[in-house]
Write a structure and sequence with these properties.
It is built from seven helices and seven strands, in the order βαβαβαβαβαβααβ. It is of the alpha/beta class. It has a seven-stranded parallel sheet with strand order 3-2-1-4-5-6-7, with helices on both faces.
């Protein structure tokens, strides 16, 4: 039996990067996957790639800063597959770095709206569906934090605030819902080889790699593997954890 056999998973931000890698892996492990994001063309491409390999997936366009769209996403999941077992709270956007005294409040709010409030809303509407599931294991929610929710970074304000907030929010939800059969956990990835990193200056990339004891950045599949484990019944006793996946970045 595959790791996620008979599970239905909504993966936010699954049109690229870590979310896309998770969508492919979850489908390979037997889950029916709802691919979600704002880019419809890219989302449908991910679904097509999953189906070509014999997996099951559907795309539902969603901007998680819009509550009606988040609610629609969860309703569509039930309409298409009849249930919801897993939510991966992966959607997020980067910030425009600046010293605090030069920071634009509008940029701070933009990041908080997506990286924190959007994740909170998605968790809210996912829980409503999961509580309807039968049995003692009603659902698993894994929210994606960041090492910047754990340690500081120069001229970074909104992103660390959002990620630290999501980590503590998830811990509180874990305490609230464990007895009702819904597990909440967080992962905190370090630097990952995604298209976003390709825009960084070469000297900055070199210095960041040097700060990792493992000597390299993560590949998206390495983060996806951790998501799959925490989402699965193999992690049935893991509640309120925050798994740092950073090649040792935060331990030195």
């Amino acid at each position: 039996m595959k790791l996620l056999e008979n599970k239905v998973a909504v993966i936010l931000g699954s049109t690229s990067g870590v979310g896309e890698a998770a969508a492919y892996l979850f489908a390979e492990e037997g889950a029916k996957v709802i691919v979600s994001g704002r880019n419809q063309e890219r989302g449908e491409s991910v679904v097509h790639a999953i189906e070509e390999k014999g997996g099951e997936a559907a795309f539902v366009k969603c901007d998680i800063t819009v509550e009606d769209e988040v609610k629609f996403l969860m309703d569509e999941t039930i309409r298409i597959y009849g249930k919801l077992n897993i939510l991966i709270g992966n959607a997020g956007i980067p910030e425009k770095k600046a010293p605090l005294h030069e920071m634009e409040l509008s940029d701070f709010e933009r990041v908080i709206d997506t990286d924190m409030i959007g994740i909170v809303m998605s968790n809210k509407y996912a829980v409503r569906k999961m509580l309807l599931n039968e049995g003692c294991n009603k659902g698993s929610i894994v929210n994606v934090g960041s090492i910047l929710g754990v340690v500081g970074a120069p001229n970074s304000t909104a992103y660390p605030a959002a990620k630290a907030g999501i980590t503590n929010f998830t811990t509180s939800c874990a305490v609230s819902y464990a007895s009702q059969g819904i597990r909440f956990n967080t992962i905190s990835p370090g630097y990952v080889n995604t298209p976003l990193l390709k825009n960084l200056p070469a000297d900055l990339v070199k210095s960041k790699i040097a700060a990792h004891p493992i000597g390299r950045f993560a590949e998206p599949i390495e983060i996806a593997e951790a998501l799959a484990f925490l989402a699965s019944d193999k992690a049935s006793y893991v509640v309120g954890a925050n798994l740092r996946i950073d090649g040792g970045y935060t331990v030195i």
